[in-house]
Amino acid sequence: MEQKEFMKKAIQLADENERHNHGAPFGAIVVKEGKIVGTGVNEVLATNDPTTHAEIQAIRQACQKLNTTNLSNCEIYASTETCPMCLSATIQK
Questions:
Q1: Which of 37, 49, 54, 73 could make a disulfide contact with 28, Cβ separation 3.0–4.6 Å?
Q2: pLDDT (tens digit, 9 = 90+) per residue, 11-24?
Q3: What is the maximum span of the chain, computed from C-alpha positions, in angstroms?
């Protein structure tokens, strides 16, 4: 997949999430070596947890899948500009 397709996937996740009323229409994916290793959507309303933003969810899933907290060789694609919390998380990854 190319960068354009990864962005389309993040936007698709956001659209689907909005239809399910789980939170704001935000989606994110984490990619390593051209493969999606984590996806996330905003689940603030579904979980009553203000930290369940799409980027955070995608990072959590990628870390679990790769069994590491070091995602330095990964890229993140988000359907919108990240908030300060999510930006900090992407820097820490």
A1: 54
A2: 999 999 888 877 78
A3: 34
